[in-house]
Design a protein that fits this description.
The complex is a heterodimer of chains A (223) and B (444). With 223 residues, chain A is an alpha/beta fold. Chain A folds into two domains: 2-119, Response regulator (Rossmann fold), CATH 3.40.50; 125-222, Orthogonal Bundle (Arc Repressor Mutant, subunit A), CATH 1.10.10.10. Chain A has helices spanning 10-22, 33-37, 58-67, 83-91, 104-119, 155-166, 174-182, 192-204; strands spanning 2-6, 26-30, 46-50, 52-53, 56-57, 74-78, 96-99, 125-128, 135-138, 143-146, 149-150, 172-173, 210-212, 216-218, 221-222. In chain A, the strands form four sheets. Chain A has a five-stranded parallel beta sheet with strand order 2-1-3-6-7, with helices on both faces. In chain A, strands 11-10-9-8-15 form a five-stranded antiparallel beta sheet, with helices on one face. In chain A, strands 12-14-13 form a three-stranded antiparallel beta sheet. In chain A, strand 1, helix 1 (10-22) and strand 2 (26-30) form a beta-alpha-beta unit. In chain A, helix 6 crosses helix 7 (174-182) and helix 6 crosses helix 8. Chain B has 444 residues and is an alpha+beta fold. Chain B has three domains: 7-153, no CATH class; 196-297; 298-425, Histidine kinase-like ATPase, C-terminal domain (Heat Shock Protein 90, 2-Layer Sandwich). Helices cover 52% and strands 14% of the residues of chain B. In chain B, the strands form three sheets. In chain B, strands 2-1-5-4-3 form a five-stranded antiparallel beta sheet. Chain B has a five-stranded mixed beta sheet with strand order 7-9-10-12-11. A two-stranded antiparallel sheet of chain B has the order 6-8. The longest helix of chain B is centred in the N-terminal third of the chain and has 57 residues, at 7-63. Chain B is rod-shaped, with a radius of gyration of 49 Å. The chains are: A alpha/beta (223), B alpha+beta (444). At the A-B interface, helix 1 of A face helix 3 and helix 4 of B.
Chain lengths: 223, 444
């Protein structure tokens, strides 16, 4: 998943970035709202936003994003633990609220849950692809099975599969998918995405990832 | 504790006593004034009666036989007695009663006066008016018994008293009603205060109903404004402090999680111990922040003990929940208190902790650890009741007590057998410790 982390504390920001990267996510770290503004317009799977930032309130920033129609899942990371604060945070557009200090493992689990809910999946295990050749994807365990056999996917291949699964049913533009999977590297290697998609099709079957000519890619989810 | 007094009761009692004293004083003054006035009136009536009788008396004297030689104090001829009137009208000639016009039953048969006496004189039992009639030595005496005069005065006084008492009673009733009405604004003020939310913008008690209440309401408004400012400042301080303490703790936690992943195997146990220590530090910080907040406000809500227990990050302890009664409280504060009690249990050898609700508003935390000796338990309970925390207990018990007190209760340490038991009373302060099993404590 591509994540935008908005956190001013170096110790926490640095640790979260490294932890989430080690989990296989692509993390962009902004130390202020001004820095976060540079990422507006780019696709992210989720935002991790601190409430108190040096140049303003992360909650106000989130409220503005929601007002402008952005539905990217968001987690508030804050030291404010009072019931009123939690309610305020959730009512202002946060999809989840995590009080500092927290275990990073819990943060990773909540991220998966938020993104899964955002994708409309009831469980972390979903079936994608055509009805006669479905692939089971476990978003929590970060792995996929084809005909009961676990597919051996690389980190980038998983990232492509995860990004499309979380957006199952809709066409994901190639440029958006590149940004979600490769981040700033997408500008350096223009054919990298095709390589990963091709590799995925080889491992999971040619029908799993459908190409919509001139528009992008799409996976279908089975009920 | 000194019992409260009623302003209305005090005023009514004072009014009653002063009315009674005033009434007695007034009655005495009236009595004294009446004595003289009634005496004058009665004397006037005696004199008038004598003047009226002078004519008939002269006729009677003329018709009577020549008088015998004077013999003072001689027995009078048998007077005519009708027994009805309380007067004596005597015609006396040289000390002898020549004619009795009227006489009370108890009137003397001899002359009312030994020697001819004109004007008012007092003889035993009678008030007498003498008037010379015709020749020298002939006197008309008109007398009235003193009993009759006293009775007349008594009747007058009694009538005055009967007229005064209802007035006194009516006055008391009116005063009672008036006081009730006049004290109503105090009750209104109390009701307003009970519903008053000092943290609402522009909160005020409103306009006072009486001039006397103006300074009281102004003082309360000023006090509330100061308190509201202080709470606002404390909230802001609490938020900043929480941010300043919790953010680095979160950073440490995350960095340790990464270090644990990346560290060589030999270093992992040491890093794990550091992470455990960091977790304890987090609990302490949470406890300190909760303790700070417990002094300002409590956000009460129904508590689901099972959900609360599920939120507690306890490693090395098995939690058993037995929730049978309703529990209300601030989930964050109660969680902070529980975390510290569980940390205590862990440090004192417990493996199992039972959370239960022995009665509504009570949260019982019982562990199977080493417990405390009875004397230490009693000392701790006494210190908790006196809120004498310093040097007598650790942060955990102190915080649990402060959380309970923030809810209007206190922390109880019943002598309850093996292990250690703490009861968070989140409701009213109970009169006694809960009836739990008899103690079998071992030294901790």
């Amino acid at each position: 998943m591509r994540l935008l982390l908005v956190e001013d504390d170096d110790l926490l920001g640095d640790g979260l970035r490294d932890f989430l990267r080690a989990e296989g996510h692509l993390v962009d770290w902004a130390r202020s709202l001004t820095a976060a503004a540079a990422y507006l317009g780019e696709p992210f799977d989720a935002w991790l936003v601190d409430w108190q930032l040096p140049d303003g309130s992360g909650l106000d920033w989130l409220r503005q994003r929601r007002a402008s129609g952005d539905r990217t899942p968001a987690l508030m990371l804050t030291a404010r633990d009072r019931l009123g604060d939690r309610l305020h945070g959730l009512d202002s557009g946060a999809d989840d609220y995590l009080v500092k200090p927290f275990a990073p493992e819990e943060l990773a689990a909540r991220l998966r849950a938020v993104c899964r809910r955002s994708a409309g999946a009831a469980s972390h295990r979903v079936h994608i692809g055509p009805a006669d050749a479905t692939v089971e994807v476990d978003l929590a365990a970060r792995c996929a099975w084809l005909a009961g056999e676990r597919a051996n996917l690389t980190g980038r291949e998983w990232a492509v599969l995860e990004a499309l699964t979380l957006r199952a049913g809709r066409i994901v533009a190639k440029s958006e998918l590149e940004q979600l999977v490769l981040g700033f590297e997408s500008e350096l290697a223009s054919n990298a995405l095709e390589v990963h998609v091709s590799s995925l099709r080889r491992k999971l079957g040619p029908e799993v990832l459908a190409t919509v000519r001139g528009l992008g890619y799409r996976v279908s989810i089975q009920a | 504790m000194k019992a409260s007094q009623s302003i209305r009761g005090r005023v009514l009692r004072t009014q009653f006593v002063w009315s009674l004293l005033g009434g007695v004083a007034l009655a005495t003054a009236l009595w004294l004034a009446m004595q003289s006035e009634v005496d004058e009136l009665l004397d006037d009536s005696l004199r008038s009666a004598a003047e009226l009788l002078i004519g008939p008396a002269l006729e009677l004297a003329a018709a009577a036989a020549p008088p015998a030689p004077p013999a003072p104090m001689a027995a009078a001829p048998a007077p005519e007695r009708n027994g009805g009137p309380r007067f004596v009208w005597q015609l006396v000639h040289h000390g002898r009663v020549s004619t009795v016009l009227a006489a009370a039953a108890n009137a003397p048969v001899q002359a009312m006066a030994d020697t001819p006496s004109a004007g008012f004189i007092n003889v035993p039992g009678w008030r007498l008016y003498g008037r010379a009639v015709g020749e020298p030595g002939r006197m008309l005496y008109v007398a009235q018994s003193r009993d009759e005069r006293a009775e007349a005065k008594l009747e007058l006084a009694f009538t005055a008293l009967l007229a005064g008492l209802p007035l006194l009673l009516l006055g008391m009733l009116w005063l009672n009603m008036r006081l009730r009405q006049d004290l109503q604004p105090l009750q209104v003020l109390s009701a307003r205060l009970a519903d008053f939310d000092a943290l609402q913008p522009g909160a005020s008690l409103g306009v006072a109903d009486y001039d006397e209440l103006l300074p009281v309401q102004a003082a309360i408004d000023a006090l509330v404004a100061r308190l509201a400012r202080r709470i606002t400042l404390e909230r802001a301080f609490s938020a900043h402090t929480a941010h300043a303490l919790r953010t680095p703790l979160a950073g440490i936690e995350v960095q340790l999680a990464i270090a644990l992943r990346e560290a060589p195997a030999a270093l992992v146990p040491r890093l794990q111990r550091v992470r455990t220590g960091a977790a304890r530090l987090q609990n302490v910080v949470a406890a300190l922040l909760a303790m700070f907040r417990s002094g300002t406000e409590v956000e009460r809500a129904p508590l689901d003990l099972a959900q609360l227990a599920a939120r507690l990050p306890v490693e090395g302890l098995a939690l058993k929940v037995q929730a049978t009664e309703a529990l209300w409280g601030d989930a964050d504060l109660v969680t902070a208190a529980l975390l510290n009690l569980l940390d205590n249990a862990l440090r004192h050898g417990a493996h199992m902790v039972t959370l239960s609700t022995p009665r509504a508003g009570w949260l019982c935390v019982r562990d199977d650890g080493t417990g405390l000796i009875q004397a230490r338990l009693h000392d701790l309970q006494a210190a908790l009741l006196a809120q004498d925390y310093e040097g007598r207990m650790g942060l955990g018990l102190m915080l649990a007590d402060m959380v309970a007190r923030a809810h209007g209760g206190c922390l109880l340490l019943p002598d309850s057998g093996p292990g250690f038991t703490a009861v968070l009373d989140l409701g009213n302060m109970p009169a006694a410790t809960p009836p739990l099993p008899a103690p079998t404590c071992t030294p901790r």
